[in-house]
Amino acid sequence: MTRRTSRLARVLSSALAAGALLTTAACSDNGDKDESRDSGVTASPAARKQPTPSPTATLTEAGAQTALITAADIEDDWTQVKDTEAENWHDSLLIGTVDVSDFLTAKADAADCQRLMDSLYHDDLLGKPSGANALRGFTQDDSRLLYQVASYDRSDPQDSLNWMAKLPDECDQFTMTEGGEERTVQVIETSLPNVGDARQGLRVTVQGTTDGEEATLTLDVAAVRVGNDAITVTAGGLDGNEHDSVEQAVKLGTQRLKDVLAGKSPAATPSEIE
Predict the structure, then answer these.
(1) With 70 as the cut, is the pLDDT of residue 100 above it?
(2) What are the distances in angstroms from CA 229 to CA 99, 186, 261?
(3) How far is CA 55 from CA 227, 228, 265, in A?
(4) Which of the listed residues 5, 28, 74, 133 has the most CB atoms within 10 Å of its CB?
(5) Residues annotated as region Disordered (predicted)?
(6) Which residues contact 45 (CB under 8 A, 6 or more apart)?
């Protein structure tokens, strides 16, 4: 009886020791794996690789002024004008009431086309800036180029870019009237350099009369978003398109804005003139 009891005690003792070793090994092995397994939930690769958001700089009035392009940044023979002169540029050919009967989905499309013409006239293509804002104007013969840098920190400039992207389809051609005169408007999409976080280009052509003579106003329009800030360029006139100058302004102007937001000083002269 004593021998069997002693043998049984040795067997139980060995079993307990083996169990303890297995438990220790399991704990040690688990320590080399993702800790999320302890709770029975495995972290997804996306969650493990989630980047830390970088701080976003706030565009100041001084920064917006620094981010403005100069005449050296755009092609051809543009001459900078006084800011007060550029602020008062409003082409009368852009004024008019859109004819709703031109549209299949009349109210929605006509409203977007009216918004386009009004925003071109008032120089607020992306809406009213909610933060810093600066503009600069240039002339060349009978053409004008207006360049703006603005912050939209309390609104979403991407919404306006999405709206612009619809316009070549919704407003490809329509009529508007002003003072009994009809004007024909055409809108097409244009390409822009692959800069900024998002971008959209348009060409707007308005055929009508000015001073009693037939005239065609051609405007190349571009908007580029960098975070909650954006640049807009509107260039053209009665002489034809200014797309090359708009492309150059977009390319160099976006880099200037990015430099300012990064706390750097933009290059004094353009790094590349095509």
Answers:
(1) yes
(2) 34, 28, 10
(3) 11, 13, 19
(4) 74
(5) 27-58
(6) none
- Phi, psi dihedral angles at 33 (to 5 degrees): -105, 175
Task: Give pTM, 2 decimals.
Answer: 0.76
At residue 219, φ and ψ (nearest 5 deg) are -120, 130
Amino acid at 242: E
Q: Which of 266, 264, 267, 263 is nearest to 57 (CA)?
A: 263
CB 190 within 8 A of CB 201: yes
E strand map for 88-196: 97-98, 133-140, 143-151, 173-178, 181-190
The C-alpha atoms of residue 235 and residue 220 are separated, in whole angstroms, by 5
Spatial neighbors of 1 by CB under 8 A, at least 6 apart, are none
CA distances from 254 to 74, 112, 132, 187 (A): 13, 27, 16, 24
**Coil, strand, or helix at residue 158?**
helix
CB 178 within 8 A of CB 95: yes
3-class secondary-structure state, position 98: strand
Between residues 47 and 166, the one the model is more confident about: 166
Angle at 249 between CA 245 and CA 252, to 5 degrees: 135
In the numeric block, the tokens 């909610």 are attached to 130
- The mean pLDDT value of the chain amounts to 80
Yes or no: say if 145 and 138 are a contact pair by the CB < 8 Å rule.
Answer: yes
| Residue 162 in this model has a pLDDT that exceeds 70 | yes
**pLDDT, mean of residues 106-134:** 91
Q: How far apart are CA 249 and CA 226, in angstroms?
A: 15
